[in-house]
């Protein structure tokens, strides 16, 4: 999400927006990893740092699940079965990881990719 908000490259913004959507709704993170983060390097470091912070928050709250489910909006209630306190820690961990990575990427920035020929011609 941070790449989507920060970049001036229209094609990269489209890739980042669709990657953020698939990561948040259904928990599929490969488009974000391979489409944006590894190519730009700094966003990947930001995602790893904030993912560790989110995991630490969940660990402090003793969050666990007993069902196999990708983490996303559609499966968030898998973790609600063990009480509201653990579920609150789960949501806080998700927020720290997702929004923290977006904010840190926006603040740290990254080296822009060159615009493609289509974008330079205004297409």
Task: List the topology elements.
Layout: H1 2-6, H2 10-26, H3 30-40, H4 42-60, H5 84-108, H6 117-120
Can you walk through the features of this model?
By secondary structure, this protein is mostly helical. The protein is 66% helix and 0% strand. It contains six helices and no strands. It has helices spanning 2-6, 10-26, 30-40, 42-60, 84-108, 117-120. Helix 2 (10-26) packs across helix 3 (30-40), helix 3 (30-40) crosses helix 4 (42-60) and helix 4 packs antiparallel against helix 5. The model has no long low-confidence stretch (mean pLDDT 87).
Distance between the termini: 24 Å
Mean pLDDT: 87
Structural class: mainly alpha
Looking at the structure, what is the overall shape? elongated
What value does the Rg take, in angstroms? 16 Å
- Count of helix runs: 6
What is the strand tally?
Answer: 0
SSE topology string: HHHHHH
Largest beta-sheet characterization: none
- Low-confidence segments: none
């Amino acid at each position: 999400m941070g790449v989507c908000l920060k970049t001036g490259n229209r094609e990269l913004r489209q890739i980042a927006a669709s990657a953020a959507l698939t990561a948040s709704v259904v928990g599929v993170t490969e488009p974000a990893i391979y489409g944006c983060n590894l190519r730009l390097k700094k966003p990947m470091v930001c995602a790893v740092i904030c993912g560790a912070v989110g995991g630490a928050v969940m660990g402090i709250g003793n969050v666990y699940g007993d069902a196999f489910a990708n983490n996303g909006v559609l499966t968030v209630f898998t973790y609600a079965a063990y009480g509201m306190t653990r579920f609150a820690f789960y949501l806080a961990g998700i927020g720290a990881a997702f929004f923290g990575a977006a904010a840190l990427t926006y603040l740290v920035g990254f080296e822009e990719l060159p615009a493609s020929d289509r974008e330079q011609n205004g297409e």
